[in-house]
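Subject: Sanity check before I submit

Could someone independently write out the structure tokens for this chain? I want to compare against mine line by line before I put it in a report. The sequence has 483 residues.
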Amino acid sequence: MKLELTESAKGKEFGVLLAEKKALSHVLGLDAEIKKIAQREKFEAKETQSIFLLNGALGFERFLVVGVSDKNATTEKIRRAVGGAVRAAQFFKAKKISFLSPKTPSVREVEASRAIVEASVLANYSFQKYKTKKEEKKSLVETLEIVGKFSTSDEKELHNAFLVCSNVNMCRDLINDNSQTVTPELLEKEAREAAKKSGLKIKVFGEKDLRKMKMGLFLAVAQANTTPPRMVMLEWNGEPSNKNKTVLVGKGVCFDTGGLDLKPGASMETMRYDMAGAATVLGIMKTCAELKIKKNIVGILGLTENLIGEKSYRQGDVLTSMKGLTVENNSTDAEGRLVLGDCLYYAATAYSPSLIVAIATLTGSVKGTFGSNVAGFCSTDERAAEKLMHAAGVTGELAWRMPLNEDYLAETKSQRADLRSTNKNKTNGMIYGAAFLTNFVEEKPYLHLDIAGTAFLEDMPKAYLEMGATGYGLRLLVEMLRK
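---
Independent answer below. Compare away.
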């Protein structure tokens, strides 16, 4: 899909007008046929209401009026309305969709237009790599036209939104693909290509390097791998005069069997997406470089698999981390926190960051609490937590803060070793994962984002996201970093 910004519609194939109730009289005055149908169908611009003219209106072959809200529109309500409009355009195999200036008095035009761009790019995505029958492939829109009068800064904002969401779709491709294709080796290759194209610095530590660094937790998980593990560092110095660095650490378990604590078949079916944290960090770093964000940001990808074989690591064994802390391994299916533990310690000691953010599909617990609508997070830094919540409101990628206090930290202690990898009572799993990992950040400000529920839609699609990978977290954290 490509983006075109224009003051008057050039495309005449499929036109769309978004409206809320406050602007209904203006909308009805645009075209007699629209007014006639609206009166007959009692159209009030409520959410999910629409008017569709096959014979067109305002010079379009097909024209769609979509209701946004009967009270106050929001950018998220606009995104949801856009999702339906894009699906309609796909159904009619339209190659170009033209959104007229939205009639949403509750939302500024540029903000509404940004929401239109975001939802259009996200809704126009479909993973069809393995579809062999042409008639079963979804027809995608090729051109997105936004009609309006925009300043130079507004145009830049819209093009930036287009770029961000295009990178979200890149992440979705990686997460949706086969685990035998998207291996640690492939993700390293993708990181190198992104670095070359966008001006990122890159450094890769292979298995021998990890052994020299004594990353005992990370290497234990990787013992039965078919592809050697590696840790990839991407660095963007957008403000060289500033010593502050934000480090993002992504869990990249390219397939998770659960190890010897084997997952049930149904739970294992989607475990190719257990590298979503690393894919998101890769996408964030690429985006920050392309947007030339004036921040210093490091992305660390901990890449491995958690497979079964003669060399599989075992439940009950005590492992030694890079930090020197020993960990009683209570479950081989709690592998993500082991990979992250060593990566976080490296991040804290190698970069002395002003903030560390971990992004991981870490626990089923967070999914059990929030489903696929909201991610859970814990933070030792109030300012970072506030920034994340603000970014969630802007992007619609929702997150909810969970507590992280001394009582939870005390639960991580082990009788046999320094730490337990899982908690004894098998509850509060999401919080326990965050508490466990605080032992490795060297008291640096830390934010832990668990995306296990939001990274992949298994049950039903959403308004502007199809089933499968969502790319959750990229828009959220880029917005947080930009502000």
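---
OP: Matches mine. For the report I'm noting this point. The first strand starts at residue 2 and ends at 6.
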